[in-house]
Structure formats: structure tokens, C-alpha cells
Amino acid sequence: MDIKETLALLSCVLLVLCGYIYGAKFVRRGNYLLGFEWMIVAFSGSNLLIWMLIQADLPGLAKINYSISYFLDAFSRGFGIPIVAVLGLMAVTHSFKPSAFKDALIFVVTFAATFVLIKADFMVKPLPYYYVTMWGVYTLYLAYFIWKLAGVGEKWHALGVTVGAALGLMVACIYDFFPIPGDETKVVFLTIALVSWSYMMVQLYYSYFAFERAKAVRIR
């Protein structure tokens, strides 16, 4: 295993830890949309990590892990981040707090839509464009979130989310359209992508509650 593969493995471990830890924190604080989406990212990362570790020795089992990770990655890129996570963030920007039943329904509908996304023949060609478009919509919402953060005096968190938004959009564009030269195995891209997503999950957690606290102070 060379240094590039080692860094990819470590970045995957980082993603798993950030997803489970901060997903659990969101759940404990009542935001199930963000909490479970972060955990889905972590579970996807867990299966990707297992695949990277056993693909040479146990290809049959590794194929199952890869399929799970592939589906959950499609879910997060197509619906989980641009729809579910945005709805979760709207709890603090728009006081959008659906019931537990509606939270569950949102996940059921978006999971079903993901099956169509990756199985339907008519989505094969437009799929990369769909992913980038949805990530663009998510980035536009983040721009609004950044503006709101700055408006309540949380300028450092606004800057932190700006960095995360830029990294996320860069990764989304590289994913299907701008492969890194010389990165045939995509381990360099994988490292960049997983570290970027890890940073995004942590930064949004702290920015979310910083915004919530700032709002509470202003109301008083």
C-alpha cells in the first residue's frame, strides 16, 4: 500500500467518524434530517472503507460493500445533501420543523427516488449533469445560509461554511467532468472528496448551533 492509498484510507476513516459523531449530535439535539443524513454518509463511508480493505482478498463480499456505498453515495449526491440536508438546515433559517412522521416520509421518498435515479435507463446520460445541478442548488442555499450567519454576527462561521461550499462544489464538478490528471485509480480525488465532506459535516454542525444561539440572543 503506497502513501496515496494510505491517505485515501485515512480520509475514509475521518469521514466515518465525522458522520457518526456529528450525526448522533444532531439527533440528540432534535434535528433528525441532518442527523440521519450525516449517519448515512458515515455508513456509506464504512462500506467504502471495507471495500478498500478487502477487495483483493474477498472480491465477492467486497462487491456487496461497494454496491451499498455506491447507492448511498448516489442518494447523498442526488437527494440527501441537496434536499434532506437543506430541509434540516431550514430548521434554523426558516423554523421548518416537520414531525417525525414527515421526516421518515422524506427519507422513504428520496430513497425510492434514488433507485429510479440509478436504475432507470433514461437517467444514464443526464445523471452526471443532474448531480452537479443538484449540488449547485445546494450551494445556492449555502450562500443564503452564509449571508444569514454573517447577518447575526457569526462571520467566522460564515467564512468556514464558504470554504466548505467551495470545496463541495469543486468536488462535485471534478467527480464526473474534470478528472485529476494521472489519478487513474481516483485515490487522490477520493482523499480530497472525503476530507471535504468531513469538513463540511463538522462545519455545518457548529455553524448551525452558532446561528441558533445568535438568534436566541437577538430575540431576547
Provide a brief overview of the structure:
The protein is mostly helical and about 220 residues long. It has one domain (about 5-210): Rhopdopsin 7-helix transmembrane proteins.
Describe the structure.
This protein has 220 residues and is mainly alpha-helical. It has a single domain (3-212), classed as Rhopdopsin 7-helix transmembrane proteins, CATH 1.20.1070. Helices cover 84% and strands 0% of the residues. It has seven helices and no strands. The longest helix has 35 residues, at 59-93. It starts with a helix and ends with a helix. The model has no long low-confidence stretch (mean pLDDT 94).
Mean pLDDT: 94
Name the structural class: mainly alpha
The Cα radius of gyration reads: 18 Å
- Strand percentage, roughly? under 5%
Number of helices: 7
Number of domains: 1
Q: And the CATH topology?
A: Rhopdopsin 7-helix transmembrane proteins
Report how far apart the termini are: 57 Å
The CATH top-level class label: Mainly Alpha
Number of strands: 0
Please tell me what the overall shape is: globular
One letter per element, helices H and strands E, the order comes to: HHHHHHH
Low confidence ranges: none
Helix-residue proportion: over 70%
In the CATH classification, which architecture applies? Up-down Bundle
Main pleated sheet = none
Name the descriptors.
mainly alpha, Transporter, transmembrane helix, Rhopdopsin 7-helix transmembrane proteins, single chain, globular, 220 residues, 7 helices, transmembrane
